[in-house]
Design brief:
Elements lengths: L22 H11 L8 H15 L4 E6 L10 H22 L3 E6 L12 E4 L2 E4 L22 H21 L18 H23 L15 E6 L3 H6 L1 E3 L6 E3 L4 E4 L9 H7 L5 E5 L5 H11 L8 E5 L6 H15 L4 E4 L7 E2 L5 E2 L2 H18 L3 E7 L34 H17 L1 H11 L1
Parallel strand pairs: 1-2, 1-14, 2-5, 5-8, 8-9, 9-10, 10-11, 11-14
Antiparallel strand pairs: 3-4, 6-7, 12-13
Helix pairs in contact: 3-4, 3-11, 8-9, 9-10, 10-11
Bound molecules: phosphoenolpyruvate and cobalt (II) ion.
Cobalt (II) ion (CO) binds next to loops.
Length: 458
Amino acid sequence: MKKWNLNSWTKYPAKHLPAYQDKKELDMVLGKLKKYPPLVFAGETRSLKKSLAQVVDGKAFLLQGGDCAESFAEFHPDNIRDTLKAILQMSLVLTYSAAMPVVKVGRIAGQFSKPRSSPVEKKGDRELPSYLGDNINGMEFTEKARVPDAKRLFRAYSQAASTLNLIRAFSQGGFADLRQVHLWNLGFVNDKTKIKYKEIEDRISDALSFMEACGINPETNRKLRTVNFYTSHEALHLPFEESMTRVDSTTGEYHDTSAHFVWIGDRTRQPDGAHVEFCRGIENPIGIKCGPTLKPEELIKLCNIINPKNEPGKITLISRFGANKVEDYLPKLIKGINKEGLKVIWSCDPMHGNTIKAATGLKTRPFDNVLQEVKNVFAVHQAEGSYAGGLHVEMTGQDVTECTGGAQKISDEDLTNRYRTHCDPRLNASQALELAFLISEEIKKNSKYSKNIIKEAS
Ligand code: PEP
Ligand code: CO
């Protein structure tokens, strides 16, 4: 095994890293960040890995969701609260309808840097460097805004820290109490979805009253009044990730303390590239995006590099092919993984393969295609005898109009009404909840076969 150290990644080719003009300033910023407090703690990351091992065994489901790109402009406690509400609602639907514990992970508190399909953006006959995320440059279409500015990393760190602080308060301080399910409602959620959700709310209230009569209540049972909520982002900005990676004093292992879970994007997952080199040395659970260009041999190689001990919960494979490409690509990958006996979570990202340009020129994702990718992925896993154990979505608790369709029937023309994303189009809370209902149906449909997997696994 080749030696790994904090900056061994710098010896490998790295794609999608910002080119800072002022290297001295970058070093000053990184030097300071190295001394800042960790955002998350090694013990929390270990708990997440343990929970993810349950997902590998088919005993739990992974729900990962949040912004495509967090932004300085959208930073507001209400937005954080509403994203959390939407994820808690989705999770409640899955836990209740599919009788599955749900591991909750946000794309939040640090999801800033973006790989872009083109290094330049054109408007009319003007061409500027692309926007790379608020922790690198500005979205404004001006020469000045698009210059990478290392000091933005301080602001991103500070935003991530206060976002996490609020998340911790919400998840531990009473907001996530099961008696408060009615407070998680988001006003604009469509009527049909609302009615279905209300039914679950009522049944949970009944169950809680019954349990209370038996002497089990949220006062005495912590699990009924708190949730474990974890954070994640793409480990794209390697200088930043390196600056946040620390040795855990209790084990001597390296942990990237910028988030509990980090993933490697579809554009930076080269087995001999810098991003893979960095991720193989840290203890955090690692996601790998699997798009149409990924070959089974390459995927197996990646798993062996990142998880040589085949530890369950370490690797989450996030498939993202596009609704009509799932059958062409996913079965080969599953067969390869199964043949090698590799322990992984299979999660489905139904967003990134379904992006299209609407007539208005805005990027969108038709909700029907998102649903279709999920259905196709579940069908393939059922046919291959593997467990579809997770969902990875770009979503928000806000009433945005970024993805077309859904119960609100958002049209191409409606997109401009509330199109607020800094990068890719997100599901709004209504669409996200609708998706959770669909997935709980799929899990229930497959429960007979997943029970078999559980038997085999235990
Ligand atoms: C993302 O999840 O934001 C992303 C860029 O995805 P992918 O790497 O799958 O394209
Ligand atoms: Co995206």
